[in-house]
Structures are given as structure tokens and as C-alpha cells.
């Protein structure tokens, strides 16, 4: 029997702006957002969003227009994101800490025609826009201004699901340019509503929002909160470097749900004293973004006791596609899985011939959370493909690049990548983007960036050949890349080790320690 392709219609019943509007009607007097000493109820937040959305429409913003939110993480940034979505724009949160040149690349890649700013980010935004003329900032509402980019070429219209708005999250790209991941309202809303139910989120919960708004973990903080009428409490960015302060903040702000990368949990275990002062209000812990080291995970489970600990997995292109409530008695000696598919998604493993396999292969995802495609030079490029899953149904699927296998119980085990992409503190880093920046420098003849193993495991080193110093290399990268992508160390070599095929031996570079210092020259 010949299997027919599954219909590719998408869920359209939920919009992200609808989640907030419904919460404002249902829980008008409940706290919705906390930023330091400032508190917004749902009615107040909805009113601020409505005013700003109206001002955007008054400035000519139309459905499908692409807007960047260039505001430090704050209540203003949250209001700007919601307002852009309510105005039916495609909204892209941007990090004001990024180097100006990288922000400029994002504007061009995403085809962003406007930026929302505040006074503290206005000058940097102007530099990112560039051009001969200093762009004018139009005051809108609540200290938020609108700045038009100087892109003259019209961008290609987006497909139907994004013509009434969408969400863009930028990730590292192998070509040296960040990629804009375009998600529809339905993609994000499907995850947000499901995750709120899965974690038992309710109107009395207080979510500790520690993720950057440019990071896909933040979609839970913003939109799952709205779906459940919960309160989002913004954690000051500066606390992340001080795990003990994070633990104290969780206690002081009565945080009940935390969604964070494993490295934050590990820091709280090893340097934050959470074992001695577990936040009394914390009832649910969720992690994603990178594998959790087995021993610290076992320790966290013992501390959590009967509190649920959830593992969410998925690349930005699918937000979250598998989930697992980690068994409370799991130990580091047991195999770790990333759980099973989120309802509405289908996940399977495919071999090199493109056939489903029971052995190791590449994880593919189809279904409600799979993105629309990448924004490249303002146009949409769809990397998905039609594949026949193990059940015989042909589906539009995203090949994740992650290697894994399916267990006999229907869960998935993750083995790593089929390419040079790595995860660091939850952020996806494409080695090729770092190397591209290095190779564009006239003083560098060759470059190889590796994730170290052995004594320096967890670190990223950049090896170069050329007429530059180690300090020059790191200085160059800091002007081009966000700090989370800058390697821990740069090493200048006279020659790279080669493998049997005559190519740079990356395995040797990954395993080797620092080069031995040259012996001092004899003096007479």
C-alpha cells in the first residue's frame, strides 16, 4: 500500500497576542509582570501593550512588517514584543550587548525595516542601522521610540502564516552570518499552551525569567505565563555571574517555576549554596538548551525530592519537540533520555539513506512546532524536506543535525552533532561563524576553532596561523561576536597538525593542552 503525504495545514487557532488579551480579561487584577520594584497587573500590561500597538499602526506599521526590539531586557522590552505582535508585525528580539556589526547583519538578514528602542539603546541602534544620515527616532509611548532602518530594497513578502505576524530568533550560522529562525504564531503558541499545562502553570505561579529575550527559553517566560495567567518576574542579568545571589533572588521573589539551562543549575549546586538553602517556594524545575551533566543532575533530583524536574529538548527551529519528567530516583549510572515527542509533533531517527532506523541516526521533527524557515537576505528559505516516517506517513520534517536513537520504550537518546555545531551555556554556536570572522582578518592565514576535551573540557579554543598575537585574536572576535561565542583562549601556531587525509586534525587540537613555552634564548 502506498502511503500518502500528510496534510501540511498548520494550527491557526491560537495567536500570541490573543494569549495576553485573554489573560487580561480573565485575570485583570493578577500580577502579570515584575521588573525590579515595578509591577504590572494583567489589565495594566494589556493597556500598555494596546497603546503602543496603536502608536505603531499610526506610524505606518502594517501586518507582516518586520520589527526588531532593540531594548535591554526590561518591562519595556516585554511590552514592545507584545505590542509588535498585536500590531500583526513579525517581531525579532535583539540583544543590545551584541557588537554593532553583528546587529547590522541581523537587520539585513531579517529584512527588519524598523527598530523599537529606549534612550539607553538609541545611539547603538543608530550605529547598527548605519548609513550617511542619522535616522530619526519617533517617540511612541512609555519611553519607547521607533527608528526606521535605511534599507531601500523591498523585501520579499512572507508566506501566508507570517503575513499577520510572527516571531524571529537569531542563531549562529555556519556561513559567518546569523540566521533568522522564523516561527509562526501557531508554532510558538502551540508550545506555550502545551508547556503551561505540562508544568501545571497557574495564576498563582511566579516564573523566574532568567533567559535573554533572544533565547528560545524566554518564550515560556512570556507566553506560557500569559496562557496560564502566571506572573513573569524578570531576573537582573548581573546576577547570573553570582550563583549565591541567584539562589537568594529565587527565595526573596517567591519564584515557584524556573526554566533555565543546566549550567545555571550546576553553578547553583557548586557555588550557589542551593543545597543548604533550597528556595522554599520553588515547586517546578525545568531545564533545556544543553545536556545536564549526570552527577549534578542526580544531586539536583535528590534536592528536589517530590518537586517535578522536566527536561525539554529541541533546537530553536522547533522550540521544544520532546520532553521528559525525569524520574526522581534516576542515577548517573542510568542512561539519560530526552523523552518522547511533544503532542502535536512527530519525532523519528533517520539513517544516511533517509530511512527510519532503530539504530543511531539524525533526529527529524515534524508537526506543530516546526518553524517556517530561515530569513536570509530578507527572503525566506525553507530547509525542511518531505520524508516518510516509520508509520508510513510522509511529513514536512526538519533535520535537526542532532544524532540519536529511539529506545524500545519510545524515548530518544541524544549522542551529539553530525556537524561542528556546539552548545555553550545553552547557546547554539556554529564553529564556522567564528572561523569565518577569523579568516576575514588580513593577519590570519588559517583558523580552526574546537571544543576542548580532556583537562579543558567545556572550553572553546581558537587556533590560528598568521602574524597576529593571541590578544589580537580575542580582541578581534570581541568586536564581531557576542561574548558567549568568544573562545576561552586563542593559540597561535606555526603549523596545524594534519590527519591522514592531509586536513587539519581537529581531534588532536581538541585533545591537546596549551603549547609548551619556547625555552629562553641564551644570552652572552
TrEMBL record:
<dbReference type="InterPro" id="IPR020845">
    <property type="entry name" value="AMP-binding_CS"/>
</dbReference>
<dbReference type="Pfam" id="PF00501">
    <property type="entry name" value="AMP-binding"/>
</dbReference>
<dbReference type="InterPro" id="IPR025110">
    <property type="entry name" value="AMP-bd_C"/>
</dbReference>
<dbReference type="InterPro" id="IPR045851">
    <property type="entry name" value="AMP-bd_C_sf"/>
</dbReference>
<dbReference type="InterPro" id="IPR000873">
    <property type="entry name" value="AMP-dep_synth/lig_dom"/>
</dbReference>
<dbReference type="GO" id="GO:0005737">
    <property type="term" value="C:cytoplasm"/>
</dbReference>
<feature type="domain" description="AMP-dependent synthetase/ligase">
    <location>
        <begin position="21"/>
        <end position="375"/>
    </location>
</feature>
<protein>
    <recommendedName>
        <fullName>D-alanine--poly(Phosphoribitol) ligase</fullName>
    </recommendedName>
</protein>
<feature type="domain" description="AMP-binding enzyme C-terminal">
    <location>
        <begin position="433"/>
        <end position="503"/>
    </location>
</feature>
<dbReference type="InterPro" id="IPR042099">
    <property type="entry name" value="ANL_N_sf"/>
</dbReference>
<dbReference type="GO" id="GO:0043041">
    <property type="term" value="P:amino acid activation for nonribosomal peptide biosynthetic process"/>
</dbReference>
<dbReference type="GO" id="GO:0044550">
    <property type="term" value="P:secondary metabolite biosynthetic process"/>
</dbReference>
<dbReference type="GO" id="GO:0031177">
    <property type="term" value="F:phosphopantetheine binding"/>
</dbReference>
<dbReference type="Pfam" id="PF13193">
    <property type="entry name" value="AMP-binding_C"/>
</dbReference>
Amino acid at each position: 500500500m502506498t502511503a500518502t503525504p500528510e496534510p501540511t495545514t498548520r494550527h491557526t487557532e491560537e495567536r500570541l497576542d490573543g494569549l495576553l488579551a485573554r489573560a487580561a480579561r480573565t485575570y485583570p487584577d493578577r500580577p502579570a509582570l515584575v521588573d525590579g520594584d515595578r509591577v504590572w497587573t494583567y489589565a495594566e500590561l494589556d493597556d500598555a501593550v494596546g497603546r503602543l500597538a496603536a502608536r505603531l499602526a499610526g506610524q505606518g506599521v502594517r501586518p507582516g512588517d518586520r520589527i526588531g526590539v532593540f531594548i535591554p531586557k526590561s518591562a519595556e522590552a516585554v511590552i514592545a514584543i507584545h505590542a509588535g505582535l498585536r500590531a500583526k508585525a513579525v517581531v525579532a528580539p535583539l540583544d543590545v550587548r551584541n557588537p554593532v556589526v553583528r546587529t547590522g547583519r541581523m537587520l539585513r538578514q531579517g529584512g527588519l525595516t524598523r527598530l523599537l528602542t529606549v534612550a539607553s539603546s538609541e545611539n547603538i541602534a543608530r550605529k547598527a542601522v548605519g548609513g550617511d544620515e542619522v535616522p530619526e527616532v519617533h517617540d511612541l509611548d512609555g519611553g519607547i521610540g521607533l527608528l526606521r532602518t535605511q534599507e531601500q530594497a523591498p523585501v520579499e513578502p512572507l508566506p501566508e502564516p507570517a503575513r499577520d505576524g510572527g516571531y524571529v530568533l537569531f542563531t549562529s550560522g555556519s556561513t559567518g552570518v546569523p540566521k533568522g529562525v522564523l516561527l509562526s504564531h501557531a508554532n510558538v503558541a502551540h508550545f506555550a499552551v502545551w508547556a503551561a499545562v505540562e508544568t501545571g502553570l497557574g495564576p498563582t505561579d511566579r516564573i523566574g525569567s532568567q533567559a535573554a529575550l533572544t533565547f528560545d527559553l524566554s518564550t515560556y517566560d512570556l507566553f506560557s505565563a500569559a496562557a496560564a495567567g502566571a506572573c513573569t518576574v524578570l531576573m537582573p542579568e548581573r546576577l547570573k555571574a553570582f550563583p549565591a545571589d541567584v539562589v537568594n533572588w529565587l527565595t526573596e521573589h517567591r519564584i515557584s517555576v524556573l526554566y533555565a539551562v543546566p549550567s545555571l543549575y550546576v553553578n547553583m549546586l557548586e557555588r550557589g549554596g542551593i543545597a543548604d538553602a533550597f528556595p522554599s517556594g520553588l515547586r517546578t524545575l525545568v531545564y533545556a538548551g544543553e545536556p545536564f551533566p549526570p552527577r549534578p543532575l542526580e544531586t539536583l533530583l535528590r534536592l528536589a525530592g517530590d518537586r517535578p524536574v522536566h527536561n525539554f529538548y529541541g533546537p530553536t527551529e522547533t522550540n521544544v519537540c520532546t520532553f521528559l519528567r525525569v524520574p526522581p530516583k534516576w542515577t548517573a549510572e542510568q542512561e539519560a533520555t530526552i523523552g518522547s515527542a511533544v503532542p502535536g509533533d512527530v519525532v523519528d531517527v533517520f539513517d544516511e539513506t533517509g530511512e527510519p532506523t532503530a539504530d543511531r541516526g539524525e533526529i527529524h521533527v515534524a508537526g506543530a512546532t516546526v518553524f517556517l524557515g530561515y530569513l536570509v537576505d530578507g527572503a525566506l528559505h525553507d530547509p525542511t524536506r518531505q520524508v516518510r516516517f516509520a508509520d508510513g506517513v510522509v511529513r514536512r520534517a526538519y533535520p535537526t543535525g542532532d544524532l540519536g536513537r529511539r529506545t524500545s520504550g519510545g524515548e530518544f537518546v541524544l549522542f551529539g552533532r553530525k556537524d561542528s555545531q556546539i552548545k555553550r551555556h545553552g547557546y547554539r554556536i556554529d564553529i564556522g561563524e567564528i572561523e569565518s570572522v577569523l579568516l576575514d582578518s588580513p593577519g590570519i592565514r588559517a583558523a580552526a576553532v574546537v571544543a576542548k576535551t580532556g583537562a579543558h573540557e567545556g572550553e572553546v579554543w581558537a587556533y590560528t596561523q598568521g602574524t597576529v598575537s593571541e590578544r589580537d585574536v580575542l580582541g578581534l572576535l570581541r568586536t564581531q561576536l557576542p561574548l558567549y561565542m568568544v573562545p576561552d583562549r586563542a593559540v597561535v601556531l606555526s603549523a596545524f597538525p594534519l590527519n591522514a587525509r592531509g586536513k587539519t586534525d581537529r581531534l588532536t587540537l581538541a585533545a591537546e593542552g596549551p603549547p609548551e613555552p619556547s625555552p629562553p634564548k641564551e644570552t652572552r
